[in-house]
């Protein structure tokens, strides 16, 4: 009994401090205030129970029954607040009025308890009074209503609220379960000595509910558990130091208790900080994920926009070019004045240039987005290169440059290629050679590399060359133009080479450049595998 009495006492003190702790955490919140009242009443109730064991007087028995009414009532008000459930004002008055009535009559003889012969921890010898049955129904009715409210809200709510209500449910079930066990089930087997444990088991409800209101996050459970562990152990230590038989031992235990408090403080602090860091990291990760998703979505939208705009740009440009050709066709609308003809020719060239640029840019995006569609067919590459060289001959002649093509004696193996795209890439390299050369000329070659089973295409010019620093980067980044090239021609956007590389690589090939340095010409290579 001595031991059980100590447990009941500790339960009462813990109840009191828990109520205080929750209340002080945020006294402005209604939910915290209601919890404080509930915890405080429970503490008194458990304390009265403890005193029943100490003084064995009728007064403490009556106090226990009296506060036994207010415990479920205050729990109900608090739980209604937690579950966001409103009840009518008149219902509140009715419930509170009835509670007050039962509270008061508990202090009179013969209403709740009668003919009490003996009082002990957890019970009494005597009879139940005339109002005991309604008293009992009132308490159990409220408990049933609490459980019903918790369950229905648990299924209705989600996220943090659900977790909170879940905690309270666990606490309530543990509490009621223990009361059932020690008060009703065990006595069936004539085991009555655990009856005093019914009131301290209210601690379960209080602990779990305190968890629910003070800490909203599951992650912080570690901190709370540490706090509870340290608090509980500290309390036991404190009680021990009073129970010690000699003064010296008392002082010693008290000193170790003091040291324990310091240790406990740092332990809680460390756990708290660790949890805070983890939560912070967690939050950052969530933010990062959201940002990445948004970027991906944006990139997707951009690709989609560019791919679909290809059509919108190309159609009107093609008709402009068509109409210009018609106007320039002399027989169609009569002879144009020479000046007008020249101007219109310039317009036509610019529009064609514009179309080329747009197509290049759009192709790059298509390749980057992995949506560059290749139309592969068996190709005799010499034919393509010959045509490309012929098409560019005028350009070279205009700059007084030679343009030579070196073909192998035997015909090359056929390669599966997208004819249109590869022509675009190779033409671009030859054109670049011409563009970046002012004296000499450009030589184009094709070779069969038997040992590698590939075809090597090369363009060698006697032009401005490429510096050692720029060489590794050439064609790897769009919009990048060499220093010399910028001086030579302001035109050009640094797109052609990048696109050529994308086209070549999409067909399993490789593109690279070699140069002895500035002013020493350059060679561009394209190696295509024969499959
Ligand atoms: P653009 O010629 O429109 O500027 P490109 O993508 O075709 O764009 O070329 C990118 C850059 O690579 C050029 O600005 C130039 O610096 C360099 N480059 C390309 N071809 C040659 C070449 N044959 N000789 C020297 N530099 C070249």
List the helices and strands and how they pair.
Elements: H1 2-25, H2 30-55, H3 58-82, H4 89-105, E1 113-120, E2 123-128, H5 132-156, H6 159-188, H7 202-214, H8 221-243, H9 247-328, H10 330-333, H11 338-368, E3 376-379, H12 381-398, E4 402-406, E5 415-418, H13 419-435, E6 441-449, E7 454-461, H14 483-488, H15 496-506, E8 510-515, E9 522-529
Parallel strand pairs: 4-6
Antiparallel strand pairs: 1-2, 3-5, 6-7, 7-9, 8-9
This protein binds adenosine-5'-diphosphate (ADP).
Oligomer: single chain
Q: Tell me the name of the CATH class of the largest domain.
A: Mainly Alpha
Look at the helices and sheets and give the structural class: alpha+beta
How is the main sheet built?
Answer: 5 strands, mixed
Average pLDDT level: 84
Beta-strand proportion? 5-15%
- Helix/strand order: HHHHEEHHHHHHHEHEEHEEHHEE
**Rounded Rg:** 45 Å
Bound ions, cofactors and other small molecules, one mention each: adenosine-5'-diphosphate
The tally of helices reads: 15
Please, what is the CATH homologous superfamily of the largest domain? Rhodopsin 7-helix transmembrane proteins
| Broad shape | elongated
Helix content: 55-70%
